[in-house]
Amino acid sequence: MAYTGKTDWKYDEVVTEADMNRIEKGVVDAHTTMDGIRADHTKPLIIEVRTSDPVNPEIGRIWLRSDL
To answer: Which superkingdom heads the taxonomic lineage of this protein's source (predicted)?
Structure first.
């Protein structure tokens, strides 16, 4: 299941145990995903210079905007 962050925090809101567990799980999931991507050496690294963002960016592709 994809991580869903909480974006409506209030200034005086209490951070609960469930909040911390959700946050920690999101961090672990992100690290696990990144470790898997870096370990797969079959995916080429592609760097592009573009004037627009790609519609469907793919893992392993990096683009630099030359028009900004």
So the answer is: Bacteria
